[in-house]
Amino acid sequence: MKLRKRALIPLALGAASSLLLATWTARSIVENRSAAFVADHSAELPFCKTAIVLGCSSTLSDGRTNLFFENRIAAAAALYHSGRVRKLIVSGDNSRPDYNEPLEMKKALAQRGVPLENILCDYAGFSTLDSMVRAKEVFGQKQFIVVSQEFHNKRAIFIARSKGIEAYGLNAADVAASHSSKTLLREELARVKSVLDIWILARSPKYLGPKISV
Q1: Per the count of CB atoms within 10 A, which of 64, 111, 138, 206 is most buried?
Q2: What would the 3-class secondary structure string for 52-117 be?
Q3: pLDDT band at 53 (very low <50, low <70, confident <90, very high)
């Protein structure tokens, strides 16, 4: 038994090394191909017809407010009121009747003074790739600003520009590391998946559907 356990050690070390290498490689690819197109202030970005606001739950599992959500909504509303964009597309998960990210975003934006007629819902933004490709293929947008936290924006910009979309990112305020460590860890793995999806698997959105006029 001890010999068998010892034999597994090199395999475990090899797997860990491979994962670290994949993570570092994906991080470098995403950073290098997106960093020039994201900004902390809307004045640093071009005027676009639309912005895509990437979804997440408005509350945490324990019922507390999700600061990622709140900060994205604040940034998106400020972007709209700055005049840099005329329409907001809120893109998120509505795979269950009792879970509707786009509707929650739409309500929150309306509370911040964004007219309802200028908010469109993408109910099939099941992943960042889905949101980016659907913005182009379903909503007809080939140029737009993405609103999320910086780490998420960079991955979204990498995906969008790999798909021939002129995308820029407005960075919403980050959340303290003490409240976001799990999210940041997931992001490292998500970047590996995104590079595989784009460069190897050529993955398409789960669902496209009819065109929607903006």
Answers
A1: 138
A2: EEECCCCECCCCCECHHHHHHHHHHHHHHHHCCCCEEEEECECCECCECHHHHHHHHHHHCCCCHH
A3: very high
